[in-house]
């Protein structure tokens, strides 16, 4: 019996002449890392541990709620209040509402209670009192000061880097939006591209908002972008895993479709580099903290310092070790806490207010653009009949007097 003939190979549909598939459709990115394993189920919590962790959990929840508050930009009235001579009293009276102080409640209260326990033990058993020389503290105090200084300076450097990255992103968006609002083709050609220009302007304004939602936790990107993007464009952005880069793709392809001269298109496309640089800097600051060895060393140093502080001070201070431990723990842990907070710079920045400021500025420019253009054209036509010399100065004293 003869073997059956092999099935013919499937024929690919012919591509119509003049139509070519976009090369991006044939690109495939290799998979570099496997997906992370699913998280293991959490063991049952111990009631005693749950009771002991109630205060830290409450302090952490209060701090996270305060971190989600929108920060405003300063104006003249805010600066006047900021430098007021009554600021010290105001800051002291609002201490209990400070997220830094609320986050310090667990460690400070624990060390103060430990100091009270040491003082009680030394009072009840004076023959077996826990005392030691203060010489080790005098030798190690400079090391602790250097650790705290490095921690805060490194954190502020990250805060400043994040602030500068956002200023470059906003400046690039304003510059690119200005070039879109002032088209270089003739008015007739610019009128044909008006819907695409309007959509491109919205894409540019949407990029800082998408970047803000990309780097801030608990951000509602759909609500923030609903007023800027059309529904179909918004669905594409929401379906993307990296929404800022998706909006950059909208901007790049819109620039390719506009009727622009090659030089201006190249300048406008070069402005996208500041967007990509901003994404890189922001993701680097979010993903790479200060080396955790310094953070752990500072934390352990502070803990050991305050565990032994009542023993060191008992011989000279007696029961004063309790308020002394409280003041020392509140001061030093507060400095370390500020360094930890500003290590992640973006919750500290007024990103919502900055995006709104950019949007309001572009909206105001669009509102006054036509009226300013009409007035300048009228002035140019009014000067068309005046007699002027080749160097541009009036040719008669009467015209010079009109200018004066």
What is the structure about, briefly put?
The protein has helices at residues 47-52, 54-67, 76-82, 87-93, 99-103, 105-124, 135-181, 187-192, 194-215, 221-225, 231-239, 243-257, 262-270, 272-287, 292-317, 321-343, 351-382, 397-403. The chain has 404 residues and is mainly α. Mean pLDDT is 79; it is low at 6-25 and 387-404.
Question: What would your notes on this structure say?
Answer:
- With 404 residues, the protein is mostly helical.
- The chain contains 18 helices and no strands.
- It has helices at 47-52, 54-67, 76-82, 87-93, 99-103, 105-124, 135-181, 187-192, 194-215, 221-225, 231-239, 243-257, 262-270, 272-287, 292-317, 321-343, 351-382, 397-403.
- Helix 7 (135-181) packs antiparallel against helix 9 (194-215).
- The longest helix has 47 residues, at 135-181.
- The chain starts with 46 loop residues before the first helix and ends with a helix.
- Residues 17-29, 377-386 have a biased composition (Basic residues).
């Amino acid at each position: 019996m003869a073997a059956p003939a092999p099935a013919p190979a499937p024929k690919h549909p012919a591509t119509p002449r003049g139509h070519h598939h976009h090369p991006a459709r044939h690109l495939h990115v290799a998979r570099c890392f496997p997906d992370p394993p699913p998280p293991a189920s959490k063991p049952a919590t111990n009631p005693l541990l749950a009771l002991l962790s109630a205060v830290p959990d409450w302090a952490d929840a209060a701090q996270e709620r305060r971190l989600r508050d929108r920060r405003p930009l300063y104006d003249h009235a805010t600066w006047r209040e900021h430098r007021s001579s009554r600021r010290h009293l105001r800051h002291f009276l609002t201490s209990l509402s400070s997220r830094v102080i609320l986050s310090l409640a667990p460690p400070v209260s624990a060390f103060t209670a430990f100091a009270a326990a040491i003082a009680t033990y030394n009072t009840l058993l004076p023959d077996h009192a826990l005392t030691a020389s203060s010489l080790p503290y005098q030798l190690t105090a400079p090391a602790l000061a250097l650790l705290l200084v490095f921690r805060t300076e490194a954190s502020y450097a990250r805060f400043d880097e994040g602030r500068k990255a956002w200023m470059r992103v906003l400046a690039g968006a304003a510059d690119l939006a200005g070039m879109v609002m002032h088209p270089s083709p003739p008015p007739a050609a610019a009128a044909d591209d008006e819907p695409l220009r309007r959509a491109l302007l919205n894409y540019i304004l949407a990029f800082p908002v998408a970047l803000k939602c990309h780097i801030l936790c608990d951000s509602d990107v759909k609500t923030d972008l609903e007023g800027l993007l059309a529904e179909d464009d918004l669905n594409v952005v929401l379906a993307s895993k990296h929404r800022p880069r998706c909006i950059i793709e909208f901007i790049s392809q819109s620039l390719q479709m506009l009727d622009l001269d090659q030089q201006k298109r190249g300048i406008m496309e070069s402005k996208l580099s500041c967007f990509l640089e901003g994404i890189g800097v922001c993701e680097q600051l979010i993903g790479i903290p200060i080396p955790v060895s310094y953070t752990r060393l500072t934390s352990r140093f502070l803990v050991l310092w305050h565990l032994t502080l009542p023993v060191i001070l008992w011989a000279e201070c007696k029961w004063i070790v309790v308020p002394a431990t409280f003041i020392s723990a509140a001061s030093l842990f507060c400095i370390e806490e500020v360094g930890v907070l500003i290590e992640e710079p973006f919750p500290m920045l007024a990103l919502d207010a900055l995006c709104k400021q950019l949007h309001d500025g572009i909206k105001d420019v669009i509102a006054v653009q036509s009226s300013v253009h009409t007035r300048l054209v009228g002035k140019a036509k009014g000067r068309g009949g005046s007699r002027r010399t080749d160097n541009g100065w009036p040719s008669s004293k009467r015209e010079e007097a009109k200018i004066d």
